[in-house]
Amino acid sequence: MRAVPGFRRAERMEEAAMVDMKFKADGGEVRRGLVGLVKAEDASVRQGAAGIVIAGHDATLGQAAAGAVVARGDIHMTGAGASLIAAGHDLTLTAGGGQFMVARGDISVTAGGGQFLVALGDLNVERGGGVVLAAKDARVGRGYVGMLVSASTVLEDGARVLFTPRLAAIFGVTAGAGFGLGIGAAVLRRFGGRRG
Q1: Of the N and C termini of the chain, which has fewer Cβ atoms inside 10 Å?
Q2: Percent of the chain scored above 90 by pLDDT?
């Protein structure tokens, strides 16, 4: 393996209380530590935090946090969270969350959620939710969703959706018309007054 200037190398980091942000783990597994960059074929972060996790194949986070997690294969997160999560295949999230989650395959969320969840395959949410969910097929069980966009949707008992695409379109047209009328009235008041 090639040394990276400015980075200390390690195959495995265990029992570390804190590590400076210039640590890079090429071996793939980080346990109980703080790491700036984890880059490996199969990356794993357990009971720690990482700035960025990049996996050539799969990534696994357990009781961990990361700024971004990117993998060409699957991403499995349990009790973990990240701002950006991008999976080349499937994303499985249990008791965790994220802001932006994107998967080329399926997304499965149990007891968790995020702001934006986008799956090119199926989206399955159980006891969780999100602000905007988009997928080919979606199933929500006992969860809360702000807006759901999918070709096929199954809402089970306890599932709540604030806006479907139809309701969002009606709201957008109504709000847009109201906003347009308000601007038009203000312009007329300002420039359409008395001439003389």
Answers
A1: C
A2: 55
